[in-house]
Amino acid sequence: MTKTAFLLLPLLTWCCTLQAAGLLPDTLRTDQLDVCMQVRLQASGNPALPVWQGGDTAGIRQVRHWVTFVVRHEGSTRDTVFLVNDRYRITWMVARAPDGGVNYLNATGLGKRVGTQRFPDFPHIAAIPLAANTELQVFVGTEAAPAGTMPVYSAEGIYRYIYELRSSSGLQIMINTLGLGFLSFVFIFFLFYSLVARQRLYTLYTLYLGMALFFCLTMHNELAGYAQTWINQFAFLRRYNESAVALMFVFYIFFGDQLLEISRQSRLLGRIFRWVAVALVGYGTFHLICRTFGIAAPLVTASYVYFRLIFLPVYAGILVLIILQVRSPLKPFLLIANGCLLAGVTASVAVDLTSGIWTVGHHVIYPGAILQLGIVGETICFSLALGYYAQLIRRQRDERAIAQSEMEKRLMQVSARSLEAQMNPHFLFNGLNAVRDLVMKGEKEHALKYMNTLAVLLRTSLINSRKEYITLAEELESTRHYLAIEQLRLGSDFTFTVQADPDSDLQETEVPPRMLQPIVENAVRHGLRPSQKPRKTIDITVARHNGTLTVSVADNGIGLHHSDRIRAEDPLKGTRMGLALTRERLALFNERQERQWHMEAREQVSKAGEVQGTVVTFTLTTKHGTDQSHYRRR
Prior knowledge:
The protein is α+β, with helices and mostly antiparallel strands. The protein has 3 domains: about 160 residues, Immunoglobulin-like (Sandwich); about 220 residues, Up-down Bundle (Rhopdopsin 7-helix transmembrane proteins); about 210 residues, Heat Shock Protein 90 (2-Layer Sandwich). Helix content is about 50%, strand content about 20%. It has 18 helices and 21 strands. Strands 2, 4, 5, 7, 8 and 10 form a 6-stranded mixed β-sheet that branches. Strands 15, 17, 18, 19, 20 and 21 form a 6-stranded mixed β-sheet that branches. The chain has a 5-stranded mixed β-sheet with strand order 1-3-11-6-9. The chain is rod-shaped and about 145 Å long.
């Protein structure tokens, strides 16, 4: 029994005039037809039509099953009888007079129409006109083998049938109207929003909504009035419903992954998503090819059931993994949305595999409407999730703006202090005096060399101070100029070296300006000058050990503790402002960079416990650990 017949069983029982089993007439007399009457059908071959008329009848030649009965109208006025056929399958009807002429040719059902439709919103109802005092032989052709009897309705009976059908479909009409209307509105809204925002998240959600709406249009939908006539025009989409549901879940998976950044948190789920998406695309493509070319193999029919029996447990397992492995403030929205969708899918599959309809009081609901409720609930949850997501983005943007403002304020303060301490006035004065002494001694070439060095040092210092970062090569060159000037002042007992490993990537490694110069300045001023050692040295070394880049500044001065005691006894000896500024510049630099510099100062002590100097080490790391690759300039 078809679903339509099941729905109309109470009506048929009430209104049809039935005779005893085996005694149903194969000739219908209109004077005996009150509301509805069952007629017995006789098997028949394809009716021989001498004239093909009434529109496109190309498909009538391929109809495999034909039955026939006779209608006799002895009245003196015209009359009409009505047949109720299958809604989703094409049914051909031919009425032929005793002389062989074709009086009526029509086809009912969604997807193909031939002739005139009395009720456009009920395309499965056929109206056969009867002239006065006429007898017609009616042929009915279907793709599937028809039943042995068929109800024939009078005008009063067909209107009772339509009223009963609408009354029992009231809840279905409400669900379909609200569901399709809501999905259409949300789809149009996010379509325009995604075009404006141009973000992958909203694009994926729009694609998902589009496929969900497409899938809902392929379902059994009951709407009111002209809306039903309009939606009947999309009946051809039903052949693509499996392809639509497969692509809908593909976009659903990618959207959920993008929303919660699932693949970044769980590689296992990322791999599962990719394999499930590939399987869904393959399943959808398989059905698209089969339905396009009319392939109706048993495998196609069986795949409907097996797909759902396999996909639902996998779907539930994915939800369990998301609960266990994913952390996100949006996870509750995703779980509730999936709960709505999973409930709709499970309930619709259960109804579809059992009775085929769900009865609520005198209302009947088809499985598609149950699934529509799940999709609408899921869409509401995801719309709320996207609203909350937008709020989180705005909050993060505001926090970043505040942090950026505070960092720029700190940067301005540090820059101002750095400019004040950029070049020690005593250093410049002593350097110029040293050059003057060389000139007075007649060492003009020597004086010119160091005057040029001093000029280059001043120029590079001013240029670098205006940059957020410079290369390590530039910083080493500037420091080398500074030490050359200090060597002129301190004399031949002071030497320095600058060495770098070949794989140090000096031109590609970024540092904040004046990272090394304050360190060597402190080494000269507070470590070497008070020292009584005959030879005073500063060694700068750049090396890479096990992928870690280090820059060390070592001197053989008096050490940190002795220097601190001297400054404590004589505050005029100065403070370590250069070290403090270096730490602040490094902190600001690290806030903006993925790879970060860390500074450590310690004394060099011999095995006998004697202080041999101070070493300051800079180490380049990432925010997640030691730097394991060469740092390329972005």
